[in-house]
Here is the input.
Amino acid sequence: MIKIKKSLGQNFLVDEKILKQIVDITEIQDRSILEVGPGTGNLTSFILKNKPKKVFVVEKDKNLVLGLREKFKDFLVILNEDILNINEKNFSKDKLIVFGNLPYNISTEILCKWILNLNNNEFWFESLILMFQKEVADRIVADVNTSEYGRLSILAKWKLDITRVCNIKPSCFFPKPKIESSLLFFKPKRNFFKIDNPKNIELVTRHFFNHRRKMIKKPFNQLFNGNNNIQKKLKLNLNLRPQNLNFNTYYNLIKEYENLRS
Here is the structure.
């Protein structure tokens, strides 16, 4: 009998139609796979049916790890670890295809960690296929001039192309969560805006979106000491609100912030 741990955000996907849809998103035969939070191995079984080269799984719950070892024997490399404490680059020389029904309480933390730790064009993954709470997914895929647009959208779309595959009803899980979920597909961009330190994305966007209903004049002046040259160069209207500035404007602001401190 599996004891569900709410502290680990455990909701196991059990709908076989959705499980098959997930593994069919991209070709995984002869590819190296990382699955985050395999739980009882429902998705793992579908992954193995597609004959991947190697499958790594990271599961924090010791009891679930015991079940995975019994169920899959030597077909997996199982790590009983917290994904937030792992360096994913150490798994394989191959680029990984990553699957994850991420724990809702740390899903954004995991995604942000992966993005912030990327070095230039050195992507350790080929693609990410991840499940989020729908509300969080809405923020990840959001476009400018929408209420969901913000820090997470700007960070996520910096180096990644993102597609919403589908929304998933609570009835597809056990136990049933109270909210709807969304499946997102991430692919690395070939060309992206060059920023020296990814953490500056968080710093600059935090300044602007801490008061998202107010005009950008105050956070701009705080970051750039009222530098009119930067305002003119980027053709900024300081009467706009944070959600009115597009992605490239934020990336340019971040670059100007770095230039002032170089």
Observations:
- Strands lie at 12-13, 32-36, 54-58, 77-79, 96-101, 125-133, 160-168, 173-174, 181-188.
- The longest helix spans residues 247-260.
- The chain has a mean pLDDT of 93.
- The radius of gyration is 20 Å.
